[in-house]
Structures are given as structure tokens and as C-alpha cells.
Amino acid sequence: LDRARVAGLALAGVVVPVRYGDGILTAAPFEASFYGGRLSGRVAVHTRAPVAFEGALTATGVSLDLLRGDVAPTLEVRGTASAHVDFESPTGDFADLFARGTVTVCDGDLGEIPPIATLPALFGSLSPAARKPRFHRAELEFRIEHERLTADRLVLAGPLFEMEGQGVYDFAGTVDVTLAPQFLKSLLLPGALLVPGFGDLLGLLREDPFYVVRIRGPIATATPVLDPFPFLGPRHAAPESVPVPFSATTSRRIPRWFR
Q1: Which of 63, 75, 237, 243 has the fewest CB atoms inside 10 Å of its own CB, making it the most exposed?
Q2: pTM for this entry
Q3: Whether 33 contacts 9, CB under 8 Å
Q4: Distance of alpha carbon 70 from its chain centroid, rounded?
């Protein structure tokens, strides 16, 4: 295929070998150009009861500039992204989707992504004379189940400091994220956390027992709040859950994307 759209995303130069046997429709391995990078993977659809689908996708060298221009023109974001995700649905329904994957962004400017865009304002309120942080790199380890995305590990980094966190985003549009920035070390020793060796030593002196940054609410309007002494109250960390097994009483239809 010269050009195609899947779930609203543009693909070009699509190569999709398709096979069918024993009730399983398989597209593997497929490859396509994807917003300046490459997308590859495999998908298998079980067309007999129990109906189900499974697969894996890998994207490399994706330009966030090109992606933003196609799906979110008003969002100011730059960088190069890579991602990998393994997924399955034991019923063939996307409401029962379970997925696990990683996303990495480098050489970017992520300051306009809500609610990331509000973090520099919080940092500036703590020290008005300090430079506002810009986030050039992001790492995400996630899983999707029960129609929500759980970030087991989130890293935001820039020229001044690096912060880690975790949280939950539900598909209704609300977010609950807890971040553990190292503001004090970053203010007193700007950039020191990024120095090999010395940064690892400073990283042992954790500040999150004294405060964390919590972002909660609708993703478009959620604002960060400095939460002191979080051990005195409940932490809103990402809940543990058991992966959805790949067997169940199922429906008898093929997912609409594969009809």
C-alpha cells in the first residue's frame, strides 16, 4: 500500500504479508514509514471462538513535529520518539485490551504537553530567580488494562535536573501522577544530577520523603501541587494489578479494524 490510515495515524509504503490458517489471520512481519521513522510489527486475529487478537508494534525515529502536525496541530512539541508495545485482547474487544510497553523521547522540547506545561510555573514559584526547566528527554514504562494507562515509571529530564514518577491516566481523560523532583539539589547545584558518578552519589540523598509533586484532574487542566511530607497521608501511586490472561469466554466477532 502506498498510503493508509490506521486509527487516525498515517502510514506510507506499507508492506503487509497476510496469511490465514487454522482460524488465525496473521499480518507479519509488516513494515511502514511512520512520521519520518519506521513502524514494524505483527498482528494475529483469532477468527474462531474464542475470538481474540494479539501482536506487537515497534516504532523508531518518529518525528514528533510531523506527528503533531498531523494529529494535534495546536500542540507545541518537538523531539524524536521510539516506542515498543506488546498487546492482546482475549475477547477481541478493545475494552478488554491489555498492553505493556515503553516510550522514549530524546532531543526534544516537551514543555507544551499538558500537564507537563504547568511544571515550569511551579518551579518558578519556588525560585523566581531560577531558570525555568525545559524537558528535553522523557522515558515511560507503561501498561494498559481496564481502559486506563498505568505509568509504572516516568522520567522527565532537562539540562538542569531529572525527575522520576508514576501514575495513572484513564481513558475518560483524567490523570493522577506523582513526581519526585530533586528541586533543592538542582537549585543549589544546577546540572549536578546529570554528571556521571557525582549525580549517582547525589541521587542517594532523596528529597521525596519531604515533598512530592502531584498532578491530578482532567488532563487538559490538571495543575501540579507541591505535597509536603507525603508519608503523613496516602500516596496516590499506581496500583498493582494482575495482567489479563489470554483466555476467556468470548464474543464471536472480528475487531472492526480487521474487517
Answers
A1: 243
A2: 0.77
A3: no
A4: 19
